[in-house]
């Protein structure tokens, strides 16, 4: 069994599924899902699949934990990631026109199973926030000496205002002489 072959990891048998709501739970190692190394914890998925005739609506909640570098203080931190997604499955390609193309897949009527591992992987990659902060109140690094202000202090702050005032004074002088 290949380590990064995600097929059969999160497979739902749909061949003889009855109409109505069905629920599933999956768990897989983040490694087996092909996620990057900062995803170190197992991935859990709760699925609700609603089948109505030739159409199915899948709703999934994906959750795990990952570690990141803080944008402000450059420290490692880890935190939970959770994201929901939904996907429509239809049998007729023409039916896809009624949906957002990112939210619909065509299933051949002869297909006996769907595998959601790739959708789960994509969902987690998109769930990573654009701004990564170890804490909302992270004080970051001192731009002058580089000390991590969350764990230490420095006296650079005391000197900074002086240079700012100098620049402002110069501006004022320049404009008053015009
Ligand atoms: Zn930080
Ligand atoms: Zn400093």
Describe what you observe in this structure.
By secondary structure, the chain is an alpha+beta fold. It folds into 2 domains: 11-127, no CATH class; 139-178. Helices cover 18% and strands 33% of the residues. It is built from 2 helices and 7 strands; from the N terminus they run βββββββαα. The chain has helices spanning 117-127, 156-176, and strands spanning 11-13, 20-28, 43-52, 55-69, 76-90, 104-106, 113-115. The strands form 2 sheets. A 5-stranded mixed β-sheet has the order 2-3-4-5-6. Bound molecules: zinc ion (2 copies). The site of one zinc ion (ZN) has 6 residues, from loops.
Q: Provide a count of the helices.
A: 2
As laid out across the biggest beta sheet, the strand order is 2-3-4-5-6
Structural class based on helices, strands and sheet pairing: alpha+beta
Strand fraction equals: 25-35%
Number of domains: 2
| Mean pLDDT across all amino acids | 88
Task: Give the structure's gist in a few sentences.
The chain is α+β, with helices and mostly antiparallel strands and 178 residues long.
List the helices and strands and how they pair.
Blueprint lengths: L10 E3 L6 E9 L14 E10 L2 E15 L6 E15 L13 E3 L6 E3 L1 H11 L28 H21 L2
The site of one zinc ion has 6 residues, from loops.
